[in-house]
Amino acid sequence: MHQNEAQTKALTTAGLNLIAQALSIYDRDLRLAVSNHRFKEMFDLPDHLVQPGARFDDTIRHMAEKGEYGDDFSIEELVRQRVEQALAFEAHYVERQRPNGQAISIEGYPLPQGGWVTVYTDITRAKQSEELLRARSEELTDQVLSHAEDLAASNRQLAATNTALEETKRQLTEIEARTRMTAEMMPAHIAHVDASGYYIYSNRRLSSIMPGRPSDIVGLHISDVLDPPSLARVKPHLAAAYRGESPVFEFNEDHGARRIRVAFSPDDNGGVFIFSMDVTEETQARVALQQSRRRSLAAQMTSGLAHDFSNLLTIILGMQSKLARMDLAPEAAQLVSATTTAARRGGQLLNRIADMTSHRTLRPKATDMHALLADLKLLATPSLPRDVGLSVLDLMPDERLLLDPGMLQDALLNLILNARDACDTNGQITVSAHRIKRTWIEITVSDTGPGFSSEALEKALDPFFTTKGGEGSGLGLPMVYDMVKLAGGDLQLGNTLTGAKITLRLPYRVAPETGGGLVLLVEDSDDLRATFRDMLTGLNHAVIEATSVVEANALITEVPDISLILSDMKLHGTETGLDLLDRVAGTGLPCILMTSLPADDPLHIAALARAPVLRKPFTTAELTALIPAKDPS
User: Fold this and answer.
1) Is residue 3 domain-resident?
2) Residues ≥6 apart with Cβ < 8 Å to 431
3) Which of 66, 70, 202, 449 could make a disulfide contact with 191, Cβ separation 3.0–4.6 Å?
4) CATH (domain of 524)
């Protein structure tokens, strides 16, 4: 026990022993938690019955055997009745005469945690005064005396009841305050609407879940709070809740492009409780995890076939090489050349299949989208025919974003080359990029070709589907789709009035810009923490440290100047780096995760869709790609 705790216990015990009343507190299991010396003294109890943990039924049995309750009853029956009354935990007030002539009052109050506290007061003198008044007051009739006695007893009982009510009121006030604080701190919107759709309760979190919506909505109708598209998506489920169902559903909110999950629960008065939360990042992580599982399954299915097919191609190429060295007729030489070309294309196809099914991982780093798009135009333009133009509309804000620039640029180049083939020798290709409500990056590649056929719109993302005949592998678009899904985004195909359009949506995540500020390092290994501390201080950052999510959360609360969190995935305690992300969600505090988990671990995949992840071991250069070094000048 700490010194402060021991001192507090000693002070509490001394204070309880100084009060005139006897006091005992029993817990929900009917075992003694606290008593004072007066309790032992009043009932002449042995030491073992006033120690914490003493059983209530043993105490009642001891007192009954000493004649405390008289002798015209069964002791075990009395103990059973008293135990049943105690388990009911009901407030009570009684007065009784003890066998030794002492009159006592007994006041019992239930506790919120279970159990009860009982106060025993010696009222012998008050009773003697009442008897003296009866004996000496000839003017008072027996009826008046009786009323006076009843009034005195009622007053004592009323005082005890008022004390219990005040304590209950205080406890209820504290519980209500804690409940409201908890509701306000939760990263979710909690509300209650009546049978007419008017809000009768709401915490102040709606605007953080659905940007652009008000926070003070109590008294407003739900149709005045939600925008028309969101209301249209919610209405059928709300109607189901009014019918007694408990629907849980998700929808895309248009104003902020967020994914919202809502749960409706009917109450007993015709109203509905509402619980809604932003699951955009969860959805992105789920998409990334699903894509990784699909790739893992595809890898298992194709690895054996690819190995055998590769061996066959090697044999075919070797035989064709021998045939090419023979003195063959011109027609035979052409067949050998064609067979060799086909075999080599088969090898290229195997490489592309390996690219799709291998454990490629996103390696996001701070990326300048302006520079990426400018480089994209420089790289793509030389491969376009003279009469096919390329326009790049860069509408991105001036922020560095967490992206895998290599994979993104490869995907966009693939789409531009597909658009070039669609335009043939004449046309226009347009790449446009813009931000959607700090939630998505939307990049569109459109062309003036013939557009997608209905079959292509349905099957274009299927591996090996191609409209290029023998010239295409059918793996270009599936590889782009794979990259987008790994990042937690989405891809859509469509047609415009002038041609085809492909739209990529990627999570919009701003790269940390700490400017050499204070970094919270969360790592449970002493040796690794020292290594990472040296890296960070070498980049001119100040560092504070924690080993668990609980410690990190305490520092975040107490230290206002933290500008970045660098945290391991596996930490002391049961919580992980993902739990730490949940703690800082909505604060705008950037977080970078570190892990030694394999790339196909579900925890690693889920983390990639929510934050940048450094794979251990990593170098200072890799860390610098995410955290720019501060200029010492």
Assistant:
1) no
2) 373, 376, 377, 390, 391, 392, 393, 412, 416, 443, 444, 445
3) 202
4) 3.40.50.2300
pLDDT at 507: 86
**Which among 550, 573, 555 is positioned nearest to 519, based on CA atoms?**
555
Examine the domain organization and report whether 536 and 590 are in the same domain.
yes
pLDDT digits (tens, 9 = 90+) for 549-593: 999 888 888 887 888 899 998 888 888 888 898 888 777 788 888
Q: Output the pLDDT for position 300.
A: 52
**Nearest to 267, CA basis, from 246, 237, 287:** 246
**Two structure tokens written together for 541:** 């950052």
Nearest to 244, CA basis, from 263, 274, 264:
264
CA distances to 300, 303, 321, 340, 435 from 308, in Å:
14, 9, 20, 18, 46
- Measure the N-to-C terminal CA separation of the chain; round to a whole number of Å: 51
Query: What's the CA gap between 312 and 321, in Å, rounded?
Result: 14
Q: Find the farthest-apart pair of alpha carbons in the chain and give their distance in angstroms, rounded.
A: 150
Q: What residues in the chain have per-residue pLDDT under 50?
A: 1-3, 304, 307, 469-470, 472-473, 631-633
d(CA 593, CA 586) in angstroms, rounded, equals 17
- The structure's pTM equals 0.48
Q: Amino acid letter at 225? A: V
Domain span at residue 205 reads 186-278
Closest CA to 314 of 303, 306, 325: 306
Instruction: State how beta strands 427-436 and 388-394 pair.
Output: parallel
Write the CB contacts of 322 (distance below 8 Å, at least 6 apart in sequence).
Answer: none
Sheet holding 103-110, edge to edge: 32-35, 22-26, 116-122, 103-110, 92-97
At 134 the pLDDT is: 64
Q: Residue 627: how many CA atoms within 13 Å on its side-chain side?
A: 28
Using DSSP bridges, classify how beta strands 365-368 and 400-403 pair: parallel, antiparallel or unpaired. Answer: antiparallel
Q: Which of 507, 539, 556 is the last residue of a domain?
A: 507
Tokens of 153: 């007893």
Is residue 395 packed enough to be buried (19+ CB in 10 Å), middle (13-18) or exposed (0-12)? Answer: exposed
Phi, psi of 566 (to 5 degrees): -120, 110
Residues 269 and 292 in one domain: no
Tokens of 380: 């793509």
Residues 501 and 385 in one domain: yes
The answer to whether 277 and 259 are in contact (CB under 8 A) is: no
**What DSSP line would sit under 155-174, residue for residue?**
HHHHHHHHHHHHHHHHHHHH
- Considering the domain boundaries, does residue 527 fall inside one? yes
Quick one: tokens of 424?
């043939």
305 and 253 share a domain?
Answer: no
